[in-house]
Amino acid sequence: xxxxxxxxxxxxxxxxxxxxxxxxxxxxxxxxxxxxxxxxxxxxxxxxxxxxxxxxxxxxxxxxxxxxxxxxxxxxxxxxxxxxxxxxxxxxxxxxxxxxxxxxxxxxxxxxxxxxxxxxxxxxxxxxxxxxxxxxxxxxxxxxxxxxxxxxxxxxxxxxxxxxxxxxxxxxxxxxxxxxxxxxxxxxxxxxxxxxxxxxxxxxxxxxxxxxxxxxxxxxxxxxxxxxxxxxxxxxxxxxxxxxxxxxxxxxxxxxxx
Length: 258
Fold this sequence. Notes:
The chain is mainly alpha-helical. It folds into two domains: 2-28 and 43-120, no CATH class; 162-244, no CATH class.
């Protein structure tokens, strides 16, 4: 008698929980999102569904125990719980799906139940990826009055994937390098346009943020021009070659301005 009352009470709780979670007694066609790529659920909805599943497990276990003890002879006894009419088949199915009841695992399932379970599985070859979330290791937090400062360390990059940085000593003569005193290599932007700026007479349009190194690109073109004119090799200081630009050959400047 006690087991019968316990089963009815558990069934009532399961029915109420399913209704609160917006779940049907048994979704015989599989989850609604089986063919969807994305689903959006509130945390409260997930918690309600989780509670409903647990309640279904307890109800299925209580029903099995009551039937085994003889307290419930047929399913008509369960109509006493009212309009919800405890669905024993639904609870048994939920017990198999969610892993509860007297029969757990494939051994306790019929051929039809195994086929139903297989039908609910994802297509062969389906891959799921769960991206870990959170701040990377080495993150530092500093708390102040009314604020929090989070310092995230720079990622460790693969050196083989970094942009090429041209070494000036190997790319130009010692005389040309004097125009870039204090600089041993070009940055990635300068290295990208080096061939066009230093080895061709092509027009260049350089768009880069402030302090990105555009002046050094312009200097590459100046040094290349002086080198082609045969001026830079006769000067100890490449900057002194500016005075020769525009000369008409007799030492006079053909331009009105230096």
